[in-house]
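Subject: Carboxypeptidase M structure
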Amino acid sequence: MIPLCRSSDMEGRVWCRRMKPAMWYLMMLIVGFFYVYLTAIQYIRGQQALQDPPSTYLKQYDPQYFDESLISPANALTFEYHNYTTMTDFLRAMSATYPNLTALYSIGKSVQGRDLWVMVVSSSPYQHIIGQPNVKYVANMHGNEAVGREMLLHLIEYLAKNYQTDDYVHWLLDNTRIHIMPSMNPDGFEVAREGTCQGGQGRYNARGFDLNRNFPDYFKQNNKKSQPEAEAVKQWISKIQFVLSANLHGGALVASYPFDNSPNTIFQQFTSTPSLTPDEDAFKHLASIYSFNHGTMHLGLPCKPGAPAFTNGTTNGAAWYPLTGGMQDYNYVWHGCMDTTIEMSCCKYPMAKQLPKFWQDNQEALVRYMGEVHRGVRGFVVDTEMRPVEGASIKVKSRDVGFQTTKYGEYWRILLPGHYSLEVYANGYDPAVEDFLVVDTNPTLLNITLYRASPEPDALPSGPNNHHTPPHSPPPSAAVPTSNPNASAIAITLFFTLTVHLVKFYRLFKYFSDRVSHHRRPVFIGGPAQSQGRPVPVHRPEFRAFSPPSRTKSPAFLIFSAEFSIASCPSIPEP
C-alpha cells in the first residue's frame, strides 16, 4: 500500500493514510474490463470495416471527375516496351487520373521484390457490387513473351478513355469487374531482349523456374518447388471468384483451351491427343470468340513452314502439346474459372515498331472476349430465411467440374444455349436440383433455395466434384471475415454480464475494507509522542491470496484480502 501524507493540524503534524488495497484492485479491474469488452466487441462484429473502400473515393463513376493532365508526357502510353519502372509509373498515373474507374493493387512480389501489379477497371473499382462477375487477364507469365504485356497496358487506357464514348465499353464496365495483370514475371522481362523471337532468355523467373509448370496438376503429381509468383496468383484467385480468364503468351498465333494435360498412357510419348473437359463446347466457343475477333488468328495459318496450322485458330491444349502444372487447368479444376491461353504473336519479343499492328489485331478480341462472362446462368443460393449460403458446391448435371458460391451466395457459369440441370450441395442442407433453359440473347437468372437437412445432417451425399476434385481443395473463395447479424444483442448481453460481476466484485472488497477500517485510526508521525521518546510503531498489513468458496457462483477471480492484527497495534497517545 502507498501512504498518502499531508499536513493536518496547526502543530505541523503529518497525517498519513494508506490507500485501501481494494481500490487498487478495483482500478485494475475497471481497466481490464473495458479492454476485454472492446476486444470482444471487435471479435463479435468482425472486421467489416476492412471491406469498405477508402472514404476519399466515390463509389460510382462521376463523368466530371477525371483529369487527363495528370498523365505527364513522361507517363503517356506509347507503342514501345515499358520496363518495370515505366510500367509502374503509367499504372499509377492512370489510377490517379481515373480514380473512379480504376484501382491499382499488388497481389505480392516477385523473387527480386518487384510488385505483381493488378489494375481493376470498373465503374465501381473499390467495391464489389453483388451479382457482378469478375474477369481477369494475365500476361507476361514468360518474361520474354512481351506482346501481351503491352497489349494489356493499352487495354487499360482504352477502357478508361472510352467509357463515355463507346456504348459497349460503358455497358461492360458497368456490369463487370475487370482485373488486369500486365506482368506476372517482371524479373524475367528485365533480362529478356527485344527482337529475340526464340530462345529461353527471360522466360523463367529469377530462380530459373517456368511459372506455367508451377501449379498443381489434376492428372499428374507436380513436384516442382512453388515459386512466389505462382503462390501469389493462387492466393489471389482463391480470394476472388473469377468466372472468366485468359492468359496471354507469345510464340504462336492460336487460342488454346483446357485440358493442357492428359492421363498417362503408353502412347502419349509418341503422339498428342486431345484431352477434353466436360465443358468442351463452352471452351471451344470462348476460344473462337477471341480468334474470330482477331485480325488474322481465325485463318489458322502456321507461323513458319513446318509449324502446325490450327483450324479456326483454336486448339485443345493437350492436342497441341501436353504439359504438367499449367495455370489454365488449375483455374478450371480448382476454382471453376473458365480460362484459356492466347498465343498472340509468332515472335516472342518482336521489335517495338510492330506493336501498333498487334494492338489493331487484338483490340476488339480483348474487349469482346470479356463480354462472354455474361453468357449462361447466374443467380443466388439462399436458405429458407433468404440468407446467402456461402461455399455451396454447384455443378451442371453431366459436367463433373464444379464451382462454389461466394459469401453473398452468388454463382455464375458460362453455358451455350440449351436445356440444363443444376445440382447444388451444401453442408447441413438437402441437395437441390433445378432445370433451366439458357438462351443466346441474355444470361438466365436462377435463384435456388436450400432447405435444412432432416434428422442426420452428417449423412450428406457426395459433393459435385466427385470426379474432378483436386487432391488439395482450397478454402472457400471468401477470405474476408463477415459480420455477425446478432452482434448487437451479444454485445449488450456481454456488457451487462460483466457489469454484474464487476458490482459483485466491488461489494466483496468493500466488505473486507469496511471491516478493517472500522478499527483503524490515523497514524501521526512526528507528534508529541515521538518528542517524548516514545516511538510509534507503524503496523504494516499482511496480504495473502485465497480462493472463494466452491459454492459461490461468482467468476473465479483471484481475490486479495488484507488481514490486520488490530490487537497487536498499540493505542496512540493523545497529544
